[in-house]
């Protein structure tokens, strides 16, 4: 797992790609990085395809909430943190596929969003 000072990135998802399960992990891996897990290794949304990071490990079921606190302050959820708009988190076996922050929607169902149609979406990644 990655420590508190790990570098994290929003990597653009390829145009035309829908945010189905694995799209975030594929995008991160193609950039030489790893998808961020939405919790610790015991979280049902985690798998071997993502990296547990310190700032997200206590928030199973609240993808990217640790990141929004880091970026925008305590108690600020991802929809209230404008820098996170368009960011998607890898989710293992979630009904909506990947989890995104799209406008006032969190988790936006990744299977309803394709990058490049109306907006570019980003994969939430951490340095390997």
Helices and strands in order:
Layout: E1 8-12, H1 23-30, E2 33-36, E3 50-51, H2 65-72, E4 87-89, E5 99-102, E6 105-109, E7 122-127
Which structural traits does this protein have?
7-stranded mixed sheet; 128 residues; globular; 12% helix; alpha/beta; single chain; 23% strand
Provide structural commentary.
With 128 residues, the protein is α/β, with parallel strands linked by helices. 12% of the residues lie in helices and 23% in strands. It contains two helices and seven strands. It has helices spanning 23-30, 65-72, and strands at residues 8-12, 33-36, 50-51, 87-89, 99-102, 105-109, 122-127. Strands 1, 2, 3, 4, 5, 6 and 7 form a seven-stranded mixed sheet that branches. Strand 5 and strand 6 form a beta hairpin. The protein is globular and about 35 Å long.
Count of DSSP H/I helices: 2
Report the structural category. Answer: alpha/beta
Unreliable stretches (pLDDT < 50, length at least 5) are: none
Mean pLDDT: 93
What summary fits the major beta sheet? 7 strands, mixed
What portion of residues is helical? 10-25%
Task: Kindly summarize this structure in a few lines.
This protein has helices at residues 23-30, 65-72; strands at residues 8-12, 33-36, 50-51, 87-89, 99-102, 105-109, 122-127. It is α/β, with parallel strands linked by helices and 128 residues long.
